[in-house]
Specification:
Shape: elongated
Number of helices: 6
Number of strands: 0
Largest sheet: none
Structural class: mainly alpha
Radius of gyration: 16 Å
Number of domains: 1
Oligomer: single chain
Strand content: under 5%
Distance between the termini: 40 Å
Length: about 130
């Protein structure tokens, strides 16, 4: 499995994270060293998955103002547990074995961080979410 782990890490983009301090929590370290690079790597897929979600839900998203689109993204992720779990799976599937072992120790807190980062990524890509 070392081969898989090495490949996964090589695929991830370098993320410039503000200075990591000695007091940084384990969750914050995991967020910055693992989750953020994976979200950056998976960004196009996340946008595509959300685009499919919008189509599945009758394209209402495309009729909304930018502000309402932000609310739509927020609600989709928080209220639709199947969709939320799918997004988490896209990220968790890119963990190395060691990262997964660290993740399961505190999955609840890390899930919150993960979903927050995914949500922000989708919001930042709203312009890419125009109707095809």
């Amino acid at each position: 499995m070392k081969y898989r782990d090495n490949l996964l890490k090589k695929l991830r983009p370098e993320i410039d994270v503000t200075s990591i301090q000695l007091q940084t929590s384990e969750e914050e370290l995991f967020q910055n060293q693992t989750i953020r690079p994976i979200v950056a790597l998976q960004e196009e897929l996340l946008v595509s998955v959300f685009r499919h979600y919008v189509i599945k839900h009758k394209n209402i998203f495309y009729t909304l103002s930018i502000e309402k689109r932000m609310d739509y993204i927020e609600n989709a992720i928080h209220k639709d547990m199947k969709f939320r779990n799918s997004l988490k799976g896209i990220i968790i599937g890119q963990f190395t074995l060691e990262e997964h072992q660290n993740y399961v120790k505190n999955s609840s807190a890390l899930n919150k961080r993960m979903i927050c980062i995914v949500k922000e990524s989708l919001k930042n890509n709203t312009l890419l979410l125009d109707h095809d």
